Each structure stands twice: as structure tokens, then as C-alpha cells.
Amino acid sequence: MLSVFSSPGHYVQGRDATAALGAELTRLGIGGPIMIVAGASAHRLLADAWERSLSEAKIEYAVHRSGGECTRAEIATITEAAQNAGSAAILGAGGGKVLDAARAVAEDLDVPMVSCPTTASSDAPCSALSVIYTEAGEVESYKLVRRNPALVLVDTSAVVQAPARLLVAGMGDALATWFEARTCTAAHVRNMRGGASTRSATALAELCYNTLLADGAQALAAVENHTITPALERIVEANTLLSGLGFESSGLAAAHAVHNGLTAAAPTHAFLHGEKVAFGVLTQLVLEGAPTGEIETVIDFCWEVGLPTTLAELGLADADRETLSAIATRATAPGETIHNEPFAVDAAMVLDALRTADALGVR
Fold first, then answer.
1. Which of these is catalytic: 123, 173, 215, 358?
2. From 64, 155, 259, 358, the catalytic residue
3. Per residue in 206-262, pLDDT tens?
4. Among the options 273, 300, 346, 358, which is catalytic?
5. Does domain 11-159 match CATH 3.40.50.1970?
6. Which of 61, 137, 167, 325 could disulfide-link to 269, CB 3.0 to 4.6 Å?
7. For residue range 96-126, what is the model confidence (pLDDT) as tens digits?
8. Is 173 among the residues known to form the active site?
């Protein structure tokens, strides 16, 4: 099996980074017309900066206001709008679902994709993967596209205007990166791009975890006060770049499968991707029989930054066995990433791990 490392073509991050958008697109040879698929907050925060930067670069563009989801219907709507506008590139601006929808549209139209996240709430911006949801809010499938974004541009001036909960959710998503990467590497399974993990990918995944432990609490304090600090910049990089490269080029395992299982329970739909992934990390560690000290370190980190460690914190305080069994069954569906674990996993094992992780979180 060949080793494969996947990454975006160019990564730019920092205060007022949107001012450089036009120049960066020109440098990469990406011209107009560009379709900007924008979430409501992204449009509010960045519309003026897009006008200045793209006008200076003489790049034509149009804005399509996203519905905020990544469903097949949403993708079809954006695709039609982009075709009607004659778009030569798609720029996604907003949260993870907006970026995923824009990525899927760019793939369908065979044009470059530019990723401009306005939150650091997930590791979606750098990847060549879109998570498709049903209209009911359940994870339907993963859509692997051929190319990573040509450019990822992260304006931390916008990121610090988002609710602190979004940065915390990004830390929950990033928390899984190292644990899933080491599992996939040990199991010698294929990563998200169909190859073996490289040492570089594993090292980036571990750096992601160490950065969370070192800077998570300080970055949370910064975003709560809408300030940009070195710790905040490091956590934005961890949530976005390190986690994105680490998960895609190393692989996913039980933590994200448990997230997908949790989406089968309607009460969890009010919670963010990274919040559910964080509980998935605890479940994976229990499932793998990880040392108590390691589990306690993860729980302590979650408590420090406000990530859920119990089912009650995900809306499942009174979940009966039938509900938990449905979650476990969905998490172990054929093709799920939980089967990247280096041992056979079934729904009964996941049910027990869910309940034990919950008990540890309660303690």
C-alpha cells in the first residue's frame, strides 16, 4: 500500500486575512467569476472586505446566501446558481456545513474550491471530504472529492467574533485527531485518501493534541473577549490545519463513528459536530481499553474548556436502552470508520463503551 499525504494548495491565516484574498487568488491563477457561498455571519462580517479585495484584484464575483446545511437539495440549489452565473471557482465562507456544500458543488462543476472559514469549529476547511446530511439532520454519507481546496484563508478577526462555543466545538473535533490517527496507523488501514499514513501526518496529529492541552484554556479566554492572541492563533491553526491534515492523511476511527451514531438520536441535533465528537473520543478510549490516566487527562481537558463528557450534556439524560442501541447500531454500520479499529467491533461493544464513558464523565 502506498503512503498518501493530502493537503490544500495554500494556507493563509491571521488578523484581517481577507484583505489578501484577491492577491492570493491572483497569485494562484484563480480568476472570476467566483461564486461566494456565504453563511449569514460570513456575509455580515466580510462582505465589505470581499468588495475591496476582489475589486482591487479585478475579480468578478457573486454571492449566494447559504441555507446553512449540507444536504443533497442544498448542493443542487447552489450548483444551479453557480451554473447560471458561469462561475469559474467556488468560494465557501462560513461554518463547516457551508464549506462542505461549497466543496461538493466545486467537485460537481469541476472547478477550484476556496475555503474561507469564519469559525474554527471543525477541521472541514482543509479537506477533500464533505459530510452529507439528510433533511432530518442525520449523517447520510461521506463525499470524497478529487482535490483539496486550492486556498484556505482563515481570517482570525472574523473567528473571534463567533460565539466561543464554536471554538470549543472545534477543539472537540481536533481532540479526536491524534487518537484516531494513532489507531489507524497501528491498524495499518487506509486513510481518507486511500493510502497508508505518513510519519508527517502522525506527527501533525500529535502536535494538534499537544497544542490543545497547552493553549486551549487561554484561547477560550481570548475568544470570550473577542481578542486575538498567540494562543488563539495556535488553537485556530490546530482546529483547522493540524486537525485537517491529521485526520485526512491518517484516518478516522471510532470517535467519528460514534458522532454519526449520535445523530440518529433527535435530541442530539441541537449540539455541534465537535461536541458529539468529543464524547466519541471518550467512547473510543473506553472501547480500546486506554489507560485510566489518559482518559482522565481527556476528561479534565473537556471540563476545562466546556466540552461534554456525559450523555446528559448531549440531550440524552433519560436515554433508554433502545435509543442507545440505535446509536450503537448506526455507529457500527457497514463502511463506518469504527471498523478501522484493530479489532472487530459490534454494536454490543459500543453500547457498553457508551454507557461506561458516560459513567466516567459523570464521576
1. 173
2. 259
3. 999 999 999 999 999 999 999 999 999 999 999 999 999 999 999 999 999 999 999
4. 273
5. yes
6. 137
7. 899 999 999 999 999 999 999 999 998 889 9
8. yes
